[in-house]
Amino acid sequence: MPVDLGLAGFKINLFDFPEFAQNLKVVEERENVEAHGELEGRIQPDVITTSMAEAIEGADAIFLTIRAYGA
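RE: above sequence
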């Protein structure tokens, strides 16, 4: 979803909790998020942070995704 919205011109902020900061490291290192398949493209997030306040500052919409765990 971030790539889809980013390609449509929306500002993209990525957040994760500090204990999961390593999940953001790949995006920080690559400086982009890519989509392959039905949707193709690459965007550079405006903000990559473990601060929720920073991530939602000035946001018009917030999308929440949760982790799925299975056996």
